[in-house]
From TrEMBL:
GO terms for molecular function: ATP binding; glutamate 5-kinase activity; RNA binding. It comes from the Bacteria. InterPro entries: AceGlu_kinase-like_sf, Asp/Glu/Uridylate_kinase, G5K_ProB, Glu/AcGlu_kinase, Glu_5kinase, Glu_5kinase/COase_Synthase, Glutamate_5-kinase_CS, PUA. Keywords: Amino-acid biosynthesis, ATP-binding, Cytoplasm, Kinase, Nucleotide-binding, Proline biosynthesis, Transferase. This is Glutamate 5-kinase. Substrate binds at S52, D139, N151. Residues 276-359 form the PUA domain. The keyword Hydrolase does not apply. The lineage of its organism: Bacteria, Thermotogati, Deinococcota, Deinococci, Thermales. Catalyzes the transfer of a phosphate group to glutamate to form L-glutamate 5-phosphate. It is found in: Cytoplasm. Its EC number is 2.7.2.11.
Length: 370
């Protein structure tokens, strides 16, 4: 049973290996994907496309055979290739009368609550206008330490941003396998995955034209699953695979999702790097997990990093387990002074009191293994 197949809103990610062809981009593959997306739009579905391929297009344009490791060179190739990529998508969707809109995002765009909401509003407006947003990471300005990692994980965060009902990863692989099919041609495909954690060991090496690989796709499925969005991994080069799978055909691998977070909590889940960390004692961890309580200063053992009031912080157990992410009601310096103390003592210790909670449960997203 694949409950996400009827989703009204989908995010479809197309990998570099699917788009790369002899001498440049594979125009036939792009035309086939455009045909399927147009058919979904005809059904009344909303589609957001996350497209890799800018660096690969830049490489082909300059006749380079190997993907560079130097970041400035990769950024330069992305700048060369991105206009080519968008021009080809416009050509692919033109026969169907679908206007294409370019949206370039960085990790910082989705880490800032204000910029996140702005991006959300823009994408909502594009969908309302009947346009097809084509999203890529803004490689020309994204540095290694703040990158999403690759477009698999970007697509998962975009799925949370637009509150999609399904994330589809079009790849150069047929599915997730029990073993590497390149080493064992008899390896069996895994059609349904209940727990991503249980299969992370199956991650393999990526195509040389891409930076993802199977592990990246599993991580994307975990990110999406944590906010209640299932993921479907499909063979992107196979004609009709997207439409067939959404009609119920047993293609690819379907990753089930658990809980459903929306709004601010979905944003908290998607943060790459919260501003700091709070280490909690066992009692506080139990209160958060079992009773859905807010975090009080008494349960805090340690403050890590520097952050201001209202910024996101990661909550950890003393054993290093990630408990959740929440918005701090006090700055790091203030929490350092009140940690381990009762809420009734806050005013005496600081000279004022905003709230009795350091993190209120309404602004807290608890982590669950997907």
């Amino acid at each position: 049973m694949r409950p996400g197949l009827a989703a009204k809103r989908l995010v479809v990610k197309v990998g570099s290996a699917v788009l790369a062809g002899e001498g440049g981009l594979d125009l036939e593959a792009m035309a086939e994907i455009a045909r399927q997306v147009a058919a979904l739009k005809e059904e009344g579905r909303e589609v957001v496309l996350v497209s890799s391929g800018a660096v690969a297009a830049g490489m082909r344009r300059l006749g380079l055979e190997e993907r560079p490791k130097d970041m400035p060179l990769k950024q330069a190739l992305a700048a060369l290739g991105q206009p080519l990529l968008m021009a080809r998508w416009q050509e692919a969707f033109a026969p169907f009368g679908l206007p294409v809109a370019q949206v370039l995002l960085t990790a910082e765009d989705l880490s800032s609550r204000g910029r996140y909401l702005n991006a959300k509003a823009t994408l909502r407006a594009l969908l309302d206008l009947g346009a097809l947003p084509v999203i890529n990471e803004n490689d020309t300005v994204a540095f290694e330490e703040i990158r999403f990692g690759d477009n698999d994980q970007l697509s998962a965060r975009v799925a949370a941003l637009v509150e999609a009902g399904l994330l589809v990863l079009l790849s150069d692989v047929e599915a997730l396998y029990e073993e590497d099919p390149k080493k064992n041609p008899q390896a069996r495909a895994i059609l349904e995955v209940e727990s991503v954690e249980a299969v992370l060991a199956h991650a393999g090496e990526g195509n040389p034209l891409g930076s993802g690989g199977m592990r990246s796709k599993l991580l994307a499925a975990r990110i999406a699953g944590r906010v209640g969005i299932p993921t479907l991994l499909l063979p992107g080069k196979r004609p009709g695979a997207l439409l067939q799978a959404l009609s119920g055909a047993s293609l690819g691998t379907y990753f089930h999702a658990k809980r459903r977070y929306r709004g601010e909590k979905a944003w908290l889940f998607g943060l790459l790097r919260p501003k700091g960390e709070l280490v909690l004692d066992q009692g506080a961890v139990r209160a958060l997990k079992e009773r859905g309580a807010s975090l009080l200063p008494a349960g805090i053992r340690e403050v890590r990093g520097r952050f201001s009031r209202g910024e996101a912080v990661r909550l950890l157990s003393e054993a290093g387990e990630e408990v959740g992410v929440g918005l701090a009601n006090y700055a790091s310096e203030e929490i350092a002074r009140i940690k381990g103390r009762r809420s009734a003592e806050i005013e005496a210790l600081l000279g004022y009191r905003y709230t009795e909670e350091v993190v209120h449960r309404d602004h807290l997203a608890l982590k669950e293994e997907a």
